[in-house]
Every structure is written in C-alpha cells, then in structure tokens.
Amino acid sequence: xxxxxxAVAAAAVLTLTFVTGTxxxxxxxxxxxxxxxxxxxxxHPDLNGVWQVLNTANYDVEPHGASAAxxxxxxxxxxxxxxxxxxLGAVGSVPPGPGVVVGGAIPYKPExxxxxxxxxxxxxxxxxxIKCYLPGVPRATYMPYPLxxxxxxxxxxxxxxxxxxxxxxxxxxxxxxxxxxxMGQSVAHWEGxxxxxxxxxxxxxxxxxxxxxxxxxxxxxxxxxxxxxPMTIRYEAEITDPEVYTRPWKMEMTLYKAVGPDVTFGQFKxxxxxxxxxxxxxxxxxxxx
Length: 289
Hints:
- This protein is of the alpha+beta class.
- The chain has helices at residues 7-10, 110-121, 123-126, 139-142, 275-279; strands at 18-19, 22-23, 49-53, 72-73, 80-81, 147-151, 156-160, 166-169, 185-191, 194-200, 220-229, 232-240, 249-257.
- Helix content is 10%, strand content 24%.
- Residues 5-20 have low confidence and may be disordered.
C-alpha cells in the first residue's frame, strides 16, 4: 500500500513508500565496510596489543551454572565443598557461563567422556593449572590473564602473563614438530585479513579448563584471529583429536583490547608459588597440612 505524508511534512522529510509492508530498498542507508588498520608490514591487519577474554571458559568451556566449588565431597543431604577448599567460601566458587563450544557440548567418545567425569571428580589432584604447568593451546587464550600479541613486519609472537608462556608463530612450515610439548608448534599464514595458526606437537598433559575437559597427544588446533573492530578480535579454534572426540569441533569467543594509562602486562611466574604443594612433603620436618 502507499502512505501519503502531508505536504508540509513532505517538504522536510523523505517520502516513504511501502510495498507489501516493507521499506523501499533505495531508502535504506548502506553502512561503509570497516577496514582494519594495517600492521607493520602495511599489508595485514595490526593485531599488536594486550588482549583478554571476558568469559568463564577457564572454569568450563561448556555451558555451566554457578556452583559452590570445583571440588565436592558427600554431604548429609547434597554434596558440599571438599575439605581442602571449604574455607575459601565464595572465593572458591564457580561463576556461571554460557560456554564457548559451538553447539554447546564437546563431542566426546563414551570412554573419553567417562575420563572427563573422573578428572572432574579429582580436580584438586589433576588439574595442571593448580601445579602451574604451562596451559597449552587453546587454554592459554582464555585463562583469566592477559596475552600480548607482538607483530612485526616479518613475524608474530604471542606472550602470556600466566607462567610466562610464549609462542613464536612460524610463517615457514619446518615440518612435523621434533618433540611434543605443552605449547606445541605453531605454523601460521594469512587468509585475507584473518591470521590462521595450526598448532601441532602438543602433549597430552594439558586440560581445556578446570572442569576436566581433556585431549590426547593427537590433538591439533587451528586458530583464527580476525580483527572485528579497533578493540576486538574474534577468536576461533577448531579442535581435532580422533582418539578423544567423535568429530572435529569449534570454540568461539571475543578478545578485548586493553587501553588506557593503566594497561600493564606483568609476569605471573607461579612455579615458585606451588613449591610447598609440590615438594613440601620432602622437608626433613614437613609442615602440617
């Protein structure tokens, strides 16, 4: 139908023509496509900066509600926090989160899911984060600590505040990694404005989160870093591990750029903080727990 606007209004306002209830296409303004600023090589987007997630994926990459603790013991009615963490109260609790796994659930093989559940039940003894082991990939990206991308005209390094972990992205593939390691071997290339990184040579000692989600040494990760605004990077990680999962799966999240005079990038070298946990029982006179 056609709506007529009074002549006085028509003099100041563009006449709108509705055809079967929709606005004519030529009256809708088109937004200009945003073009990321170029980096040091003047060709690819500038990813330099300090970045950090704003999610709870390090607790659990799958959707989860709030809970009293990461570790529980049987209670008189329902499970209660484990004795080792009960004194932490709300500090030891778990905040809720929608998860970062595309589709919601990790496609575990049945025996691997059982292993995840067993890991969860023994979180205090098994989570490598508690012992300050290197976080692995992709967990290093979404731990509650910042990361710094250092991009030059010929290379990229990613440094992590947690445990001073670091990755050098190789733009020339050297072939298979000579040995498996916590952070693996990262081989990168650009697909348009997206930095694509394939990570292989990972050991089986890292977890994906505090919830016991795990992988084997057959894990490979393909990461994608896409600058979506001056302050945001869209991070995607495709996970493949035929020993643990029934198919490849993805996680997605946003990295936010830290700005302002208070931006810092410290060193959280936590190895010395866990010496009592790891070696306290070796004292000549061990301290009581």
